[in-house]
Amino acid sequence: MNELWNDILKIGQSILQGGNITYEDALMLGDANDSDTILLCSFANKIREKYNGNNVDLCSVINAKSGNCSEDCAFCAQSSRHHTTAKCYPMIDEDEIVETAIRREKAGAKHCDICTSGLGYTGQEKNFKIIINAFKRMKKETNLKLCACLGTLTMDAAEQLKYAGVERYNHNLETARSFFTNIVSTHGYDERIQTIRYAKKVGMEVCSGMIIGMGESMDQRIEHGFLLKEFDVDAVPINILNPVKGTRLEGLKPLSPMEIIKTFAIMRFIMPDKNLRFAGGREKNLKSLQSLGFISGINGMLIGDYLTTDGQGVNKDFDMLKDLNLQY
Fold first, then answer.
1. Per the database record, which ranges form the Radical SAM core domain (predicted)?
2. 112 in a labelled binding site
3. Of 54, 65, 130, 140, most Cβ neighbours within 10 A?
């Protein structure tokens, strides 16, 4: 047995017994390759099973306002600074939002997330009032757990969402603080962190994760994972960059499938009891290895289409879960 194999065994067993991984040990796991990666995934799977069971949490997103965003996020097809083929449209009306949510529930979603492009809301905007009214109706007309992904918030906006029935706020920090300025220049990291604090203060759960494959190192992914652990977020969506033509990252070389799988496993070691979610980019980047995500610690999944790209279809998602003997 080589040294890393032994270390994976010791760290994995410690977490299964209720311990926590150290930052230094997580960095060491980032060096895993080949069969060591498979062992890492096996322990991540056991950790997922111990702390989260075999039920996969399914979520769906409604893109209620698309494109023409003022921000310069390097990965984003909706930025007005990029020239892409992503759809652009103003806020859809309240009825369409609610009707879409009802369809998503019938398709199998348990959570439904209203998402809009743009920096965020103060709580006074006309579009924000449309969103609030839609959430109030969704609360009455569905059994969905309500989520929102609306960018930065003021305290007032967060309170209005909570009062309207929103249970979880989705606000990704995108990447590690040490890499953030390579991706975004039009707003700061602390602005995003403040929104997470507002959401938690009013009593909403927080869904905050990352995009991997933007040029960051494994050490920076681990840095980000420990920050999310520190903030005690409830759910962690892990997006895999799907480079869009016309964005600043269009020519980036994709991560290898095994590098992606290893990242999932390390995030499970760092956050053993959290909801780690498959998000955008899994179909294109993992291809035939998608199912390995669930064997490396993932226990949630966004189903249907994403904000600007198509998903593989809910029936294929359900077939994959059935083949893995996972419940949803």
1. 51-282
2. yes
3. 65
**How do the domains of the chain map onto residue ranges?**
54-323
DSSP string, 50-65: HHHTTBPEEEEEEEEE
Query: In a 10 Å sphere around its CB, with 0-12 CB exposed, 13-18 middle and 19+ buried, how is residue 310 labelled?
Result: exposed
Q: CATH fold of 54-323, please?
A: TIM Barrel (3.20.20)
Per-residue pLDDT of the chain (328 residues; tens, 9 = 90+): 468 999 999 999 999 999 999 999 999 999 999 999 999 999 999 999 999 999 999 888 999 999 999 999 999 999 989 988 888 999 999 999 999 999 999 988 889 999 999 999 999 999 999 999 999 999 999 999 999 999 999 999 999 999 999 999 999 999 999 999 999 999 999 999 999 999 999 999 999 999 999 999 999 999 999 999 999 999 999 999 989 999 999 999 999 999 999 999 999 999 999 999 998 889 889 988 999 999 999 999 988 666 656 666 788 888 999 999 999 8
Q: Is 76 annotated as a binding residue?
A: yes
Q: Are strands 145-149 and 152-153 parallel, antiparallel or unpaired?
A: unpaired
CA-based nearest residue to 160, from 191, 141, 133, 194: 133
Whole-model pTM above 0.85?
Answer: yes
User: Binding residue per annotation — 59?
Assistant: no
